[in-house]
Design goal:
Helix content: 40-55%
Number of strands: 7
Strand content: 5-15%
Largest sheet: 7 strands, mixed
Number of domains: 2
Length: 296
């Protein structure tokens, strides 16, 4: 094995880790893959004999790449009216998906990614690299072009935002599925009161239809308002069919044909009620989703 073959093999062992860093930074698996590939290109052009800790070096490099991508994306979305939601990690509840995909999907919830999207790119980088992956602040400082003390402050502000927005979620998948099934049954039958029974009074309903869409709308909050919104749209979409899936490790639904879904709904459950419904209907974020057809 020559030096480049050895380097390639080493990079592949770190690829799942780098994908996890990039997905938390970007909220998009497709963009995360692009960031990881760019990381490999930079490694291939570097003088590797000076790298003492390859995993640490790669972590910082992929973080820097993601920071640039976040800054560019933020500028493009300044006038975006609707909700921007992450690209979901969807899997069938009983499917034998690759272990590394399952681990990533189960460890990064939609709710956390939605909160991370409210941070500045530098805050997000500092939080993800330090709080999740234990990168020292002096290395983070070099990436964001600030002092270590300033990098520490970035992470502190981000941590406070995340903690303030954190909702203790019910991890019981069986409970989640019962609530999602009850929600779906109420939506299909047009039962307003049954919807209120499963929705938290402060529930938030977000839909991401894509930046290019003319029908983007801001989030809807409050059980009554969300129930009315659901009942007004259900007759158009539910007849296309739904299937139960796991969305970032939690109970969710796919709407539409198995080979070309029109939407993915993720649910956040806390205290025995649904506290957030996130519907990803941006075609660009649904391209790679394929599940086994299942009638509901």
């Amino acid at each position: 094995m020559d030096e480049r073959d050895w380097l390639t093999a080493q990079f592949e062992t770190h690829r799942p880790h780098l994908r996890g860093v990039a997905y938390r930074m970007l909220g998009s698996l497709s963009e995360a893959e692009d960031a990881v590939q760019e990381c490999w290109l930079r490694l291939d052009r570097s003088r590797t004999e000076s790298i003492d800790d390859l995993r640490g070096w790669l972590t910082v490099v992929v973080g820097r790449i993601c920071l640039d991508m976040l800054r560019s994306r933020r500028a493009r979305r300044e006038d975006y009216v609707g909700s921007w939601l992450p690209e979901p990690l969807v899997r069938d509840e009983n499917a034998a998906d690759p272990e590394e995909f399952v681990e990533l999907a189960d460890s990064v919830g939609l709710a956390l990614l939605v909160v991370l999207e409210t941070l500045t790119p530098a805050e997000r980088l500092a939080f993800v690299l330090h709080d999740v992956f234990a990168v020292p602040f002096d290395e983070i400082a070099d990436v964001v072009g600030r002092s270590p003390a300033a990098a520490r402050q970035l992470a502190s502000r981000a941590r406070q935002r995340v903690q303030n927005a954190d909702v203790p979620t019910d991890a019981d998948l069986a409970l989640q599925r019962r609530l999602v099934d009850a929600f779906l049954a109420a939506a299909q039958s047009g039962d307003f009161d049954a919807l209120l029974d499963v929705l938290d009074p402060e529930v938030t309903f977000r839909v991401d239809v894509g930046a290019a869409s003319r029908i983007a709308q801001p989030p809807v909050r409050g059980a009554s308002a969300v129930a009315r919104r659901v009942l007004s749209t259900a007759p158009r979409f539910l007849p296309l069919g739904t299937r139960p899936v796991l969305v970032n490790g939690s109970a969710g639904l796919i709407v539409g044909p198995a080979n070309s879904p029109i939407g993915v709904a993720g649910f956040t459950v806390s205290g025995g009620r649904i506290v957030a419904i996130d519907v990803i209907a941006d075609p660009a974020k649904l391209k790679g989703i394929r599940t086994e057809p299942q009638n509901r």
